[in-house]
Amino acid sequence: METTAIDEETRMPTSLPDGSTTPARTTRTYFLYALLLVAIVSAGIVHAFTPRQPVPVAATEPLNRHPNAEAAVRYALHQLGTPYVWGGTGDGGFDCSGLVMRAWQAGGVQLPRTTRQMINVGRRITRAQLARGDLVFTNNGGHVQLYIGHGRIVEAPHTGAVVRTGRLPRVVTAYTRVSDG
């Protein structure tokens, strides 16, 4: 009859099924890794079935009063991953103003085609007044982004990139609200 050595501290076998031996410390390490793996998997499974709660709008972040601002934001977010195409307005890609123009068009508002024209539409607001759907202009008015809330924007940034979200830039030329509805 074959006997298996038992580690006195862990009460675990110190030999493998093929008869070879392994230090108790290694066996304990495998046991702890297995326990950790079970805990991680269990936590992941529990988390996967936990309903996700909507993120509340911060009390300091105003709501955009335009009835179609949400439609504009939803349209722009639906374009994530679409390639940047200079002069693009949707068929195959977007440039920055093409994305914003089409987003607000989905909300029932016609905006001019270029950033230089868009910057003069609506009314100027401050950073503290930003609400979902507001326009954010950078690069001396040469680039436009759509504010999506919580300090985030969606944009078609430059050649070689795709429509993406990002942080609200620190250096901004202007913030504008398309309309208060």
TrEMBL record:
<protein>
    <submittedName>
        <fullName>C40 family peptidase</fullName>
    </submittedName>
</protein>
<dbReference type="InterPro" id="IPR038765">
    <property type="entry name" value="Papain-like_cys_pep_sf"/>
</dbReference>
<keyword id="KW-0645">Protease</keyword>
<dbReference type="InterPro" id="IPR051794">
    <property type="entry name" value="PG_Endopeptidase_C40"/>
</dbReference>
<keyword id="KW-0472">Membrane</keyword>
<feature type="transmembrane region" description="Helical">
    <location>
        <begin position="30"/>
        <end position="49"/>
    </location>
</feature>
<comment type="similarity">
    <text>Belongs to the peptidase C40 family.</text>
</comment>
<dbReference type="InterPro" id="IPR000064">
    <property type="entry name" value="NLP_P60_dom"/>
</dbReference>
<keyword id="KW-0378">Hydrolase</keyword>
<keyword id="KW-0812">Transmembrane</keyword>
<keyword id="KW-1133">Transmembrane helix</keyword>
<keyword id="KW-0788">Thiol protease</keyword>
<feature type="domain" description="NlpC/P60">
    <location>
        <begin position="66"/>
        <end position="181"/>
    </location>
</feature>
<feature type="region of interest" description="Disordered">
    <location>
        <begin position="1"/>
        <end position="22"/>
    </location>
</feature>
<dbReference type="Pfam" id="PF00877">
    <property type="entry name" value="NLPC_P60"/>
</dbReference>
